[in-house]
Structure formats: structure tokens, C-alpha cells
């Protein structure tokens, strides 16, 4: 079974929210990004990859913080290499590392971030209060950021990324180091922004669960290359066959299916996973019902089998680099 | 329905793209510095030399019958200080406070940002490296200009206001740009050198110690080397002496007053020293500071290769 290399993410006309063509970034002799080609037209995108895959470098390059050695990247139609300021004015970035401005309280820090993002003083202060309430720091907003716990610091970073109401929100490992409750709260906020508030969200993480909770689309990065990309639900379906339950002799149906060139696996609970041997995705439910009738074993349950994101991720990692 | 809607709301205000982007950095830097008690107290103390000069300017006008001839010779000389000499003398008196404030305010400007990883906060916003450096430098410039230019300006206004001749204002007008230039000449090197030192470390205290050491050591060398090598020009090894030499170029005070009031610590006629040398000394220190500054700030952008 082969993994689809790239699924087109075209969602609407107009410039994509994020696009990269042959993006290469080097640190000295090490190539951190080796010609990344991706396109994202809006919604919520997960940037998955193991540590060192190039996720942070990719985010920095598309935000115009790193100059690509080759290729190009654009956010909202702005070229990253030439219009980094415009990109950063319209996007919010929550870095992975712990960062703050010493001496400022939560509300001062958030308002300050608003001001350096182009808001006026009064607007920045008002927005700072609003977003801090939104992320759940209303009680602690007058305390110094240095005194915050890890979870609160993550929240204040999210508030600082949101204060100027960006069109696109880039989040680099937003749940790293959080306890389960704080992680759940953070993911709910991000999911709310992506699904209810009309904000485009790009979430970089090595935690599959985070991406699955928040994102509709995914790009798997490994060794500086985009191994696969597309809508998560489509990728899961495209990679699999059908789960079948048989009314009658299971073995007879399995034999018929194998004779028809299909791959059959037993899941141990009486169901069969039937896949097209060629992996071309040509297998249909109708064909399976016909096969069942022909074998004298009517089918009582046929649903498209879905892979877990983990399977998808592992398969993408196992792929040969292009 | 909740009284206050705590869900996310879109921005209703407008973004101001055109204003100088470094201004928020300057405002916040100043606010953070003067939030502490020590700078406020020191700022009050720094008003002392200004008050002294103000007295010497106002006294002859306010009490014409005062027996000035009975004053000690140095005080009497101060009463006759006028024009640029007076301002140079004030600058001399303020020099300690200028250095102190440069070190106190500048020590943590970059070092604290490096420690708290704040550069990620700045550079993920619509700010350039230049905006960042300008923002930090302007914090120091505002403080140092408040200590150097503002007192001179107030003295100038007082002097002009008390003058009896009608053409005095026009006669003295040329002093204003020279005073500003002189103040910038003091503030810029101190400011840039402090930023460079602050970028070398992640602790404000270390940066302050290094800066104090640097200014002290160069001053010591400026005193020892001319004696040891019997060449007065070696005084210019000292950053302070180089600044003073250029300051004298801009203000051009009366040489006799400069000598009799010991404007320069060593009493050697620095006014006669060539200009190229102090300019090169300061340029050297400024270049080294800028190199350290941009290197430290740019390095944050580079993710270490695994």
C-alpha cells in the first residue's frame, strides 16, 4: 500500500494562506529544509514531524525570519523573503521556547506586544484585557510574567500572539511541557479559534493527538521534506480499505476476496479489513457486496476503514525521501 | 446571556502602520527603568550641578549688591563663566551622572532580553533589527539627553530671560544647535558602548560591572600612560577624555577658563590635542560595540543545527 505523496489542498480561489515552492534553508552545511513544496488555503493546518524535522525552521522561513537559500514561500500572498514585515503584521506567532519581556505584568506584556504589532496604546490595552480573559488569565493578568507557572506562560504567549487579531496564527509546540488539564484547555482554545472564530491556524507539533484535536489538514515533515499533506480525514481514508462483517462463513468470504486480488486481515473481533491489493483506491463497497453475494456470504457491515493518524504519520516517515 | 462576553472578539480598532516602530520599545524601556526607586533618587541628585549653575547665573542679576569680590577665586570665576564655557563646565559636572545612568539604564537593556529570550517576542512582530536597536538606543539617549541637553537648555533660557540687552537672544541663538550637538556627542558613544556591552552577557549586573570596569580602566590608562611614556596624547586612550576633547571642539570654550577650572582631570592641555585621534578612539569603541550588538541579536535567529 502506498502513501499518496501530496494531496492538493485547494479550498478557494485567491492567494493561499501559506505556500512554499522548493523551499531550501541551510545552516552552514546542514540543509534544514530540502525543497519543501506545500500549499494551504485556510482553516487549520497541522505541521507534524519528529524533533529536528525542520518544523520550526519552516515556520521561521515563512515568517520571513530566515532567508531561504533557494525556493520561495508566501503567506497571504506576501513573499516571505521580501515582505516579512507585512506577513508578521498580519500573523500571530507563538514560539515554542519560553519568552517574555522581564519586568512586565501579563497585561502589560500583552499590551506591549499589541503596540509593537501596530496597535495604538488604548486599543492595545483594551485588547490585552480581552484576550487575557479569553485565554483564562483574568485573575493573574496583573502579576509579573516571571512569576507565572509554565501553563500560564503558554497562555500569555497565546494571548500575545492574538492581541492584534491576526489573520493567521502560527503555533510552535503550544502544549509542550503542559500538564494534561492545561494542555486540554489550550487545545480547546486553539480549536475554538480555528473552527468558530474564522482564524487560520497553523499548528506545529510532534504530538499527534494535538494535531488530530485541532486540525483539519496536515503536512508531515521529516528530514526537512514534506512527506505527505492533505485533509486528515481524506488521507486516512485514502490509505485504507473497508471493515467488513460477514453474515455466515467468514473464511469463505476471505478466500473469495483473496482470489479476487484483495488483501484481507482479521482484526480479532470477527471483522475483516479488506484492502485493494494494488492500493490504487479502486475498491468500492458495491464491489464488496457483489463479492459477498457471489461467495454466498452476505455482508452485514461494510464501512470505510480509517487509519489512525499515528499509522499515517509512521507510514509517511517510513517513506523514501523524494 | 452573560453580562460580559469572554469569548474571542475581532479587533475593532485600527492598526497604525506608519508611526516609528521603535517608539513602544522606548516608552516601555523608560517606564521599566524609572519604575525602580534608585533611578528616581539619582535623577534628583543629578539636578544638583544644574541647580549650582542656575544659582551662579541668577545670583548677579538677583542680588547686584552682593559682595562678589569676597568670594573664593574659583567661585568668583564661576560667576564670570558665560556662553559655551558655562555649558562645558556643566557637562563636566554632569559627567559622573551621565556615566552612572548610562551604566544603570544600559546594563540590562539587551542582557535582560537575551536572558528572557525576549528577542523571539520582538522579531516575530513587524519589527526589524534596526527598529529594535533604535528602540533600545533611544531609551539611553532620552535619559542621557535629559541629563545633558535639558539642563543646558534651561540654563540658556534663564540666561536669555535675565539678559538686559535686547540683541542678546539673537546673539545666543547659535548656542542651541551646538548644545544639542554637544549633548549628542556625549550621549551617543556612551549609549552605543553600553548597548554593545549589554549584548555580551545575559545578566544586567555583569554588563554593569564590565561597563564600569571598561570606563574605569580606560581612564586609569589615560592617566598612567602619558606619565609612563611621557606623551600627553595617550590621555586619549580614555573614553571620557576623547569625549571631552570632541566636546570642546563643538563648544569651543575659553582656553583660560578651561585651564583655571581644571576641566580635564589631568590638567594637560587636551584642547591642543589633534581631533583625529579622539575621533578614532571613539569610532573604534563604537564599531566594536555595534559588532557585538548585531552579532548577539542576529545570532538568536539561527537555530543550532542538530
Radius of gyration of chain B, whole Å: 23 Å
Characterize the biggest β-sheet of chain A: 6 strands, mixed
Order of helices and strands of chain A: EEEHEEHEHHHEHEHEEHEHEEHEH
* Average pLDDT score of chain B: 82
* SS-derived structural category of chain B: mainly alpha
Low-confidence stretches of chain A: 1-11
Q: Poorly predicted ranges of chain B (pLDDT <50, ≥5 residues)?
A: 301-306
Q: How many angstroms does the end-to-end distance of chain B come to?
A: 53 Å
CATH topology of the largest domain in chain A: Rossmann fold
Number of alpha- plus pi-helical segments of chain B: 12
What spatial order of strands do you see in the largest sheet of chain A? 6-7-8-3-9-10
Shape of chain B: globular
Largest interface: A-B, 51 and 41 residues
CATH class type of the largest domain in chain A: Alpha Beta
**What helical percentage do the residues of chain A reach?**
25-40%
Features:
heterodimer; A: 322 residues; alpha/beta; Rossmann fold; Alpha-Beta Plaits; six-stranded mixed β-sheet; four-stranded antiparallel β-sheet; 11 helices; 14 strands; B: 306 residues; mainly alpha; 70% helix; 0% strand; globular; disordered C terminus
Amino acid at each position: 500500500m502506498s502513501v499518496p505523496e501530496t494531496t492538493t489542498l485547494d479550498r478557494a480561489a485567491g492567494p493561499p494562506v501559506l505556500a512554499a515552492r522548493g523551499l531550501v534553508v541551510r545552516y552552514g552545511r546542514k540543509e534544514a529544509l530540502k525543497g519543501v513544496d506545500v500549499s494551504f488555503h485556510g482553516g487549520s493546518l497541522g505541521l507534524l514531524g519528529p524533533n529536528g524535522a525542520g518544523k520550526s525552521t519552516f515556520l521561521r522561513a515563512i515568517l520571513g525570519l530566515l532567508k531561504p537559500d533557494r525556493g520561495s514561500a508566501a503567506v497571504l500572498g506576501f513573499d516571505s523573503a521580501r515582505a516579512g514585515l507585512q506577513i508578521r503584521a498580519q500573523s500571530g506567532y507563538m514560539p515554542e521556547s519560553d519568552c517574555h519581556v522581564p519586568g512586565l505584568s501579563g497585561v502589560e506584556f500583552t499590551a506591549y506586544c499589541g503596540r509593537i504589532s501596530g496597535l495604538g496604546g488604548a486599543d492595545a490595552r483594551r485588547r490585552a484585557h480581552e484576550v487575557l480573559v479569553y485565554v483564562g488569565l483574568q485573575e493573574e493578568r496583573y502579576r509579573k510574567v516571571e512569576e507565572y507557572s509554565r501553563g500560564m506562560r503558554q497562555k500569555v504567549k497565546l494571548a500575545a500572539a492574538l492581541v492584534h487579531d491576526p489573520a493567521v496564527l502560527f503555533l510552535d509546540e503550544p502544549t509542550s511541557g503542559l500538564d494534561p488539564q492545561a494542555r486540554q484547555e489550550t487545545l480547546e482554545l486553539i480549536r475554538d479559534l480555528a473552527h468558530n472564530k474564522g482564524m487560520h491556524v497553523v499548528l506545529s507539533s510532534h504530538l499527534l493527538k494535538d494535531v488530530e484535536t485541532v486540525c483539519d489538514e496536515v503536512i508531515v515533515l521529516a528530514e526537512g521534506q514534506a512527506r505527505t499533506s492533505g485533509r486528515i480525514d481524506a488521507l486516512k481514508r485514502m490509505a485504507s480499505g473497508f471493515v467488513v462483517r460477514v453474515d455466515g462463513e467468514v473464511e469463505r468470504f476471505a478466500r473469495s476476496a483473496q482470489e479476487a486480488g484483495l488483501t484481507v486481515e482479521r482484526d480479532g473481533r470477527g471483522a475483516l479489513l479488506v484492502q485493494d491489493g494494488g492500493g490504487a483506491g479502486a475498491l468500492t463497497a458495491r464491489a464488496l457486496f457483489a463479492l459477498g453475494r457471489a461467495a454466498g456470504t452476505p455482508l452485514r457491515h461494510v464501512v470505510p476503514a480509517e487509519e489512525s493518524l499515528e499509522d499515517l504519520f509512521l507510514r509517511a516517515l517510513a517513506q523514501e525521501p523524494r | 446571556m452573560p453580562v460580559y462576553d469572554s469569548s474571542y472578539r475581532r479587533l475593532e480598532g485600527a492598526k497604525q502602520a506608519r508611526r516609528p516602530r521603535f517608539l513602544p520599545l522606548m516608552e516601555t524601556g523608560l517606564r521599566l527603568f524609572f519604575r525602580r526607586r534608585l533611578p528616581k533618587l539619582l535623577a534628583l541628585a543629578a539636578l544638583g550641578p544644574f541647580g549650582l549653575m542656575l544659582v551662579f547665573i541668577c545670583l548677579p542679576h538677583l542680588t547686584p549688591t552682593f559682595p562678589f569680590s569676597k568670594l573664593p577665586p574659583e567661585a568668583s570665576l564661576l560667576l564670570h563663566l558665560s556662553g559655551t564655557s558655562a555649558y562645558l563646565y556643566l557637562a563636566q559636572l554632569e559627567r559622573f551622572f551621565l556615566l552612572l545612568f548610562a551604566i544603570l539604564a544600559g546594563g540590562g537593556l539587551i542582557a535582560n532580553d537575551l536572558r528572557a529570550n525576549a528577542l523571539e517576542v520582538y522579531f516575530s512582530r513587524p519589527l526589524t533589527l534596526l527598529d529594535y536597536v533604535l528602540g533600545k538606543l533611544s531609551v539611553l539617549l532620552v535619559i542621557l539627553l535629559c541629563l545633558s541637553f535639558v539642563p543646558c537648555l534651561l540654563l540658556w533660557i534663564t540666561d536669555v530671560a535675565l539678559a538686559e540687552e535686547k540683541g542678546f537672544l539673537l546673539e545666543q541663538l547659535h548656542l542651541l544647535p551646538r548644545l544639542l550637538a554637544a549633548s549628542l556627542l556625549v550621549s551617543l558613544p556612551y549609549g552605543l558602548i553600553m548597548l554593545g556591552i549589554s549584548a555580551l552577557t545575559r545578566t544586567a549586573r555583569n554588563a554593569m560591572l564590565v561597563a564600569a570596569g571598561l570606563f574605569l580602566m580606560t581612564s586609569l590608562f589615560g592617566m598612567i600612560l602619558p606619565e609612563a611614556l611621557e606623551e600627553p596624547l595617550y590621555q586619549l586612550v580614555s573614553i571620557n577624555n576623547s569625549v571631552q576633547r570632541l566636546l570642546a571642539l563643538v563648544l569651543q570654550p575659553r582656553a583660560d577658563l578651561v585651564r583655571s577650572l581644571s576641566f580635564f582631570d589631568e590638567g594637560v592641555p587636551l584642547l591642543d590635542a589633534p581631533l583625529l585621534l579622539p575621533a578614532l578612539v571613539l569610532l573604534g569603541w563604537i564599531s566594536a560595540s555595534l559588532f557585538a550588538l548585531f552579532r548577539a541579536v542576529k545570532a538568536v535567529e539561527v537555530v543550532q543545527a542538530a
